[in-house]
Amino acid sequence: MVSGLQLVQVCFECFGFVARWLSTAGWQMVLTLVLLMFILVVGHDFYVQRRQARRMEAKGVAPEAREEAPAFSMNVVGGFKTPAHFAYHPGHAWAMKESRQVVRIGLDDFAARVVGQIDQIDLPARGRWLRQGEHGWTIGRGSHRFEMLSPIEGEVVEVNPEVLRNPSLAHEDPYGVGWLVAVQAPAVDSNMKNLLHGRLAQRWMEESVGALHTRLSPGSEAVLQDGGHAIGDVLSLVPEFQWEKFVQEMLLG
């Protein structure tokens, strides 16, 4: 794009040539040309600035403002995080529609905190077909393995390599960098209708938290809470020989 300064230089060079050619026309003609060149330069600068402004408007807010804004609205139910715009399967897996038929999925904060120290994840390979409500993946802690159910039916089109290298991400940030796989779901609309959304999801999470307290022991609510958030390792409160049964009951595995 030609800058305003370059345009001014070109205009004055043209003006000098035209002024010499029209020297007999008098100073009125010269003044008219100067005014025309000035209007042209100002108009060019206005056009450039307006174009930049429109680009910023199309992007919405400024980049620095976007960085400060939260990625999504976060609810906290009984100390467990539940993003408001996600959909949830009763087996404590979430689903988020990314495009017309592609859905990203993972385990929710409840599952992450129940299992606690996740040190192994076995994810389905690309090309594998998942069925809604059936086995989706396996998470591990030490020598223990816990199966989880897929919230969506479809073909796996992407697997998170970061969570395979570092399974603890699924515990530390289950809704962000700890996502698991992306699925191409031909029946995505009907699949999403089978999941829990909004207030229904919040009531379901409240029931899950109540069942957790009941399963552990009366008065366990005070033990589970840590500064307003659920503790990150519920299994540490359960005898190890009961882990598989406990997780199966909590996650419908």
Structure explained in plain terms:
The protein is α+β, with helices and mostly antiparallel strands and 253 residues long. The protein has two domains: 60 residues; 178 residues, RNA polymerase II/Efflux pump adaptor protein, barrel-sandwich hybrid domain (OB fold (Dihydrolipoamide Acetyltransferase, E2P)), CATH 2.40.50. The strands form four sheets. The chain has a six-stranded antiparallel beta sheet with strand order 3-4-5-11-10-7. It has a three-stranded antiparallel beta sheet with strand order 6-8-9. A hairpin with a 3-residue loop joins β3 and β4. It starts with a helix and ends with a helix.
Layout of strands and helices, then pairs:
Layout: H1 4-21, H2 27-59, H3 63-68, E1 74-77, E2 80-83, E3 87-89, E4 93-97, E5 102-107, H4 109-115, E6 120-122, E7 129-130, E8 135-141, E9 144-149, E10 154-159, H5 161-165, H6 169-172, E11 181-184, H7 188-193, H8 198-216, H9 220-224, E12 225-226, E13 229-230, H10 243-251
Antiparallel strand pairs: 1-2, 3-4, 4-5, 5-11, 6-8, 7-10, 8-9, 10-11, 12-13
Helix pairs in contact: 1-2
Descriptive terms for the model:
253 residues, alpha+beta, OB fold (Dihydrolipoamide Acetyltransferase, E2P), 2 domains, six-stranded antiparallel beta sheet, three-stranded antiparallel beta sheet, 10 helices, 21% strand
What's the quick description here?
This protein is α+β, with helices and mostly antiparallel strands. The protein has ten helices and 13 strands. The strands form four sheets. Strands 3-4-5-11-10-7 form a six-stranded antiparallel β-sheet. The chain has a three-stranded antiparallel β-sheet with strand order 6-8-9. Strands 1-2 form a two-stranded antiparallel sheet.
